[in-house]
Amino acid sequence: MRLSVLLVGLLNSEPADSVNHILASYILSHLQEMVHMGLGDLAEQCQVSKATVSRFCRALGYRDFYELKYDCYELEGYIPNQIVAPGDSDWAFLQAANQQAEQLLAHVSQKDLDRLAQALLRFENIAFMGHMESGDVALMLQHDFYCLTGRIVRAMFRPLEQQQFFQSLREPTLVVVFSVEGHFFQRLFGANRAPKLPAGSMLCLLTSNCPKSPVPVQLHINTGTKNDFSGRNLSLTLLEHLLILHCQRLLEADSSSKSS
Fold it and tell me: Any idea which fold 90-259 has?
């Protein structure tokens, strides 16, 4: 899955005639062929040099072409999650979604939501992140937070942009990461690698399927809805709404105390 996220991120961020876009598009469209190809074969098919392919692989975070090719084996056999709910009716799906909402309510503490809401209102530098469907939730939080506070916060869903952001951090920053499966950092940085944040920063991971964070985070909120599609993106969306509600309550309480 890490490779597909990286490649789709490239397709969304690079011009259609760029070398990176051409290589990413070819790999995604020829996964079965990729598992049997060498570096020179890919270079020939995309009409680029071997050195260009090597640079492309390193830009994605791989040591070389063959490490990328190994991920192609896994991706080629990957079957995307389907929308599945018990029974065949729309009502059955909505009932399953309702059950996931109840599970979210049971797993997520008010204390954690208040802590994150306070951080959102306290930090000057903030970034929201996610991959694929989780990126949609990050963009939603960006929009809702602006509507509530008038503050423009950066939201990122392209992997290369996220990597560059972490590498360029110099000031204390709040980073809020949405990740359905909880594998955001492995996909972004590879195994056993974690982003380094400046002192005073706060890293938050909001997920639906990870019992513990793979990297040190200051706050980890797990909705507990696991792999049920009716509760995955939905559970993170509901979590985003709850977070905005907590921010609104804090602002109202602060306004009341100042006026009294």
Answer: Rossmann fold (3.40.50)
